[in-house]
Amino acid sequence: MSTATSTATTSTATAVAPLTVTDAETLVAAARTAADAAGVAVGITVLDAGGHLLAFRRDDRAVLIAGETSTRKAYTALQLGAPTADLVDLVKPDGPFHSLSTALDRPLLFIAGGIPVHRDGRLIGAIGVGGGAPEQDHSFAAAALAELG
């Protein structure tokens, strides 16, 4: 077997289905249901593995910045492969990555509410929720992931 064939076979065997628009809509609906149940108006952003927008919704009653914060949280979770809730202490003034929030051209946001989306152990996207208290936003995003399965 040639190297090219071996590589192609390996790639096919480990391929993971990407996050789809249908998946993104499921995430948005589930996060919105969780937020509605708590009486919180939010913005919800879902990005694919490349950081491209798949779905977005900001409730009419949500503060305007909720759209921006949900997007930045999703982007941060995607880029660092970790929930933003887990990163907060790392960027505090005495944290090991205190300058990370200003080091890149695209702004990161280290507030709970962003969670990476994995399928079969592979990073395929991220969801971000903004508009509630950080712990609420995180719980709404986590509820959405649970719905996706």
Task: Note the main sheet.
Answer: 4 strands, antiparallel
Q: What is the CATH T-level topology?
A: Beta-Lactamase
Give the mean pLDDT.
90
Overall shape: it is globular
Specify the structural class: alpha+beta
Order of helices and strands: HHEEHHEEH
CATH top level label: Alpha Beta
Fourth-tier CATH superfamily name: Haem-degrading domain
Distance between the termini: 38 Å
Low-pLDDT regions: none
Count of helical stretches: 5
**CATH architecture call:** 2-Layer Sandwich
Rg (CA only): 17 Å
Total separate domains: 1
Write the layout of secondary structure elements.
Elements: H1 3-13, H2 21-38, E1 43-48, E2 53-58, H3 65-80, H4 100-103, E3 114-119, E4 122-130, H5 134-148
Helix pairs in contact: 2-5
Description:
This protein has a single domain (16-148), classed as Haem-degrading domain (Beta-Lactamase). Helix content is 43%, strand content 18%. It has five helices and four strands. It has helices at 3-13, 21-38, 65-80, 100-103, 134-148, and strands at 43-48, 53-58, 114-119, 122-130. The protein has a four-stranded antiparallel sheet with strand order 2-1-4-3.
